[in-house]
Amino acid sequence: MATAEQEQRQRFRHLLIIDDAEGRRTISLEAATYSIGRDTTNSVVLHSKMVSRQHALLLRVTAPDSFAYLFRIVDGDLQGKRSTNGMIVNGRRLFSHDLKHGDVIIFGGDVKAKYYAVSDLSDADFDRFCEASDLSTILSNSVNPFQTLVPTDDALQSMSEASLVRLASFPELTPNPILEIDLCGTVTYLNPSAVLNFPDLEELGLNHPMLEGLLSMIQSGTSVHAHKSFFAREVEIGEKVFEQSVHYIHESDLVRSYVIDITERKRAEEQLRHQAQREAIINRIVQAMRVTMVTAEVLNTTVSLMVEALGATHCIIVQMSAEGELTNQYCSEGASGREDLLQGNTAFLRYCQAQLQAGQQVVLADMDSAMDLDVAAIARHCGLQALMMTPLIYLQTYLGSISLYQSESNARGWSEDDLELVRTIANQCAIAIHQAQLYQRVQDLNADLEQQVQDRTAQLRQKMKELERLNSLKDDFLSTVSHELRTPMSNIKMAIHMLGQFPLGEKQQRYLKILAVECDRETELINDLLDLQRLEAGGNPVTVERLLLQDWLPGVLEPFRARLKDRQQHLEVSYDSEVVAIETSRVSLERVLAELLNNACKYTAKGGKVHFEVQGIMQPEPRICFRVTNQAEIASHELPRIFDKFYRVPHADPWKQGGTGLGLALVKKLVEQLSGEISVDSSDGATTFIVSMPPLMPTAPALY
């Protein structure tokens, strides 16, 4: 049995010895990838100004037909950008080289490195190796394994094309499975990831889902893939879904597959569809609440949407009086006119009354076994299998309930998402009922106001306060919905982007473009609403930093130059040479200037000019003024309202681009948050927005 020291000596060691301005050091190469350069974020840091920030890469490559590996050095960074001063290996300038024992590498002209691949070196020997100045003795006693690790030139010539391609493309390092078969169905290659993900692939061969049908798709004359060298398909294995890209290599009669696990993407797409449907339902209910105070209209809309969203057979919403008596009920289309079902619902309500009044949601997956015999008999008579009852409670007052039923032929149960959605809708329905009740009471009070004005004034004020509180709750709800819409909108944008990666017809591309544009508009509205709400609530702290205006402003202006050029507009920029820097929030100030420049482009006709100016003012106190002027005039009676939310100047958009009317409201809030002031002047065919900022913010808010 080998001793521990013998095992240490048999292990190959790959070493890189570097000499630079910091001295000599030895690095044991064990990882799969190393970045080399002057920047301190590199795996191997070289101390020389002649070396690029990211100068070279070291990649571990498995030698063909063996389990040994070598290291390949490549000039440049991960994006393929070459180094400034190049790389010299053994006296030759090279872009890529498979390192051999004893190779000498020069980085940037003044950093020297040597590569050694040795074995028979114990840990103690290795420590001495790292400290020794003369390496000849140690290296002469060690074994150079390179002749077994890297093929000779003769061996390279005798290698198969597949082996050479595999050596060049690093399939051993990729985290995605790669598999290859010949036209007889024999597995010719599996990379480590393929072996890990499909351990039974070699055993099952063509019966494995990843290989099943591949040869028939390649060979069949009637197949849609006949005469094609590439196609893609989706393969389901258990609960996972894979995207398989299949390539037929004519030169070697091999079929190679590149596999990506898209399970999470598929789940995200499915969740996205459900989420979009549910958000649409909530939005429609909110819209109904916003346009009417009539409870019947809101609840009739709700019962129809609940059946559609949750796949229920029936939905019934009942209103209860303060004394616990049923006052109104609203039924989905299938339940309307069915007296047996309405009577059954009343019986079920009595059965669950205590739980509902306590604010508990009642869910029965099997009504036949979960209820008393008499009530279960009613459920069987009505053909009902599953039940969900959700109370309508507001300010600890029980106002009614929502009943959802699944028939025996349509019973699938209720998920936690279903329960949460119904609870959310029930809360809004309770608000709508209570709001309508309050509204009706106010109407009744107004009808009698002449006779009761002295007695009821105090009560009316109280009720109006309650209405304001309800409006605040509604605003909170709208804010919550806007925030919750942000994630699905991001997923929608991702799905649109992914769809755009596949070949589409002209009509499909047009529809996809429409989806992308509308998605961007919706995302912009949601973001503006959330930003404005945070600013108004004072919960948007900023990070203060020093901005050198000559360096920072060109980046702010650059995106608008191309836009102005497309519209044949002209941008003029002027700086006050005495204005050098400002200490403020980069993000907030950049957004303010971008919004003002965007408006200037938007409301300037073709051929017009936009002027941007930076000016320093010392009296009565030091200020830095940013002026944005465009050739368009705003009527004087419109100026007082342009910073109001959702307000847009009528007939002032020559490009017909539309907008939300939130941009200038956001600008005003951001400027105030930065301790600045904004004003506008419009006359003689031109409009100028002036943002006046202190060079240094008087108080810095808490940082993120």
Describe this structure in words.
The structure is a single chain. The chain is of the alpha+beta class and 704 residues long. It folds into 4 domains: 4-149, Tumour Suppressor Smad4, CATH 2.60.200; 174-261, Beta-Lactamase, CATH 3.30.450; 293-447, Beta-Lactamase; 545-693, Histidine kinase-like ATPase, C-terminal domain (Heat Shock Protein 90), CATH 3.30.565. The chain is 42% helix and 25% strand. It is built from 21 helices and 28 strands. The strands form 6 sheets. The chain has a 6-stranded antiparallel beta sheet, with no helix packed on it. A 5-stranded mixed beta sheet has the order 4-3-5-6-9, with no helix packed on it. Strands 13-12-16-15-14 form a 5-stranded antiparallel beta sheet. Helix 11 runs antiparallel to helix 16 (416-447), helix 12 (339-351) runs antiparallel to helix 15 (373-381) and helix 18 runs parallel beside helix 21 (663-673). The longest helix is centred in the C-terminal third of the chain and has 51 residues, at 449-499. It is flat and about 105 Å long.
